[in-house]
Amino acid sequence: MWMVGSLLRRLAAGGGPGHKPKPIRRWEEEREVMRATAKGLNETAFSHVYAKNWREAALAFGEQAAYDLKLGDEQSAASALLLSAKCYAWIHDEDEGAIAATKLALDKALALFLKRNDLQMAADSCVQLAELYVEQRELQTASDFFEKAAGYYGSNRCSRECRFEAGRLRFLLANKETYRQSPDPDVRSQLYEVYATGIM
Predict the structure, then answer these.
(1) Can you say how many angstroms the Cα of residue 193 is from the centroid of all Cα atoms in its chain?
(2) Per-residue pLDDT tens digits for 15-61
(3) What is the widest separation between alpha-carbon atoms in the chain?
(4) What angle do CA 107, 111, 112 make, to 5 degrees?
């Protein structure tokens, strides 16, 4: 009777004569390895941050994000992508590849935060993208991202600040030719003040 019960339990679990262990254990072992790798990459990235090796830190955070995504941890992946973008921001002044990598990391982080309905972090990502586009003098795109950030923030102070920045950029875009062509020093100084306080 005991043997019959044991056989039924094995059959219910998918076992039987010549039964091989399910690959679940192997997958769990692989997940543990990936978790350990992601943790190691995070520690490596922060050690590069402390040493101000920004490129290495950015790459390590990016690799961590890839492992986090394989593990299904979208929140950790998005946070790692944000950190990667911040590291790239330290080196992209004269590096087109770093600028592109920053934009890509922020775009991916934004998509993950929106997927998780984490609007606060989505808004923060939009602000960082807006500031990056301001640095690149892509003012219309920057204005659009400030508007998106304002929408994600809701009705708090950050939202008002983002709408103000978006408006300032639109004003600058609308008056760009006036600034260039006006002989009136007062008009030029007023527009320059808007430009300097909003962008520089």
Answers:
(1) 32
(2) 555 555 556 678 788 888 888 998 998 999 999 999 999 889 999 99
(3) 103
(4) 120
Cα 62 from Cα 73, distance rounded (Å): 14
Retrieve residue 191's tokens: 């527009």
Tokens of 85: 């973008």
- The residue behind tokens 């922060």 is 46
> Residue 67 and residue 197: Cα distance in Å, rounded?
41
Instruction: Name 159's Cβ contacts closer than 8 Å, sequence gap at least 6.
Output: 149, 150, 151, 153
- Check if the beta carbon of residue 152 is closer than 8 Å to that of residue 119: yes
Q: Are the C-beta atoms of 169 and 198 separated by less than 8 Å? A: yes
pTM comes to 0.70
